[in-house]
Predict the structure.
Amino acid sequence: MVARMDQATDTTLLADLLQARRGTAFFARKLNELGDEELDGASLLPGWSRRHVVAHVGYNARALSRLIEWAATGVETPMYPSPEYRDREILFGATLSPAALRNLFDHSAVHLNVEWRDLSDESWEARVRTAQGRNVAAGETVWLRTREVWVHAVDLANGAGFEDIPDSILRRFLDDITASWRVRGTDQGLRIEVPLDAGTLARGDLASPRARLVTGSLPAITAWAAGRGAKGVSQDRGPLLPAPPWI
């Protein structure tokens, strides 16, 4: 029997899907390394156990699958009925037995992958709405999932770090974060510089000569910007401050 393949033909989209699938495999590996009792341990997210992280990632896949179904059918299917519903869902998921919690992650990831696989080129361009109310093409779901699985694999607090995330994902994630700062105006007086082989990546307040300068490697700066610690990050004057909120 011939294996089913992605219906998409755009090479950039196919490369993005590969990154999302690799991130899913990475999250699965870090999850499977944890014993059942270890799921009760703290994650890197304040107030969340590892159980909450796994539940969130599982239900996120289901929510994104609803957007792909919307794109495929034209029938509006929101990610969540409401923000309160999303929060209740995660809290409920965190109470599942270890086996059920692992199955939630596995089955929801497979479901999303099948929905992606069967979506036509035309439907990838269909407009859907994210939980934050943004109107985007269905192709944006691939990046949304990519970001979730790679970053939350680190949040499992099981040995993964931002240095395990591919540079291309880190750069796009950092762009997302700094763009949100710019929209809110919270990047004023803050300049970020990251030394790269091709030169220096600069973000934040690039106009003010008095902006405080925060520097570090790409993984370290992205982790700091995402609120995941400040190891390897330095500031040119004064104590290093927490990064502005980006969500």
Remarks:
- Residues 167-232 form a domain with the Nonspecific Lipid-transfer Protein; Chain A fold (CATH 3.30.1050.20).
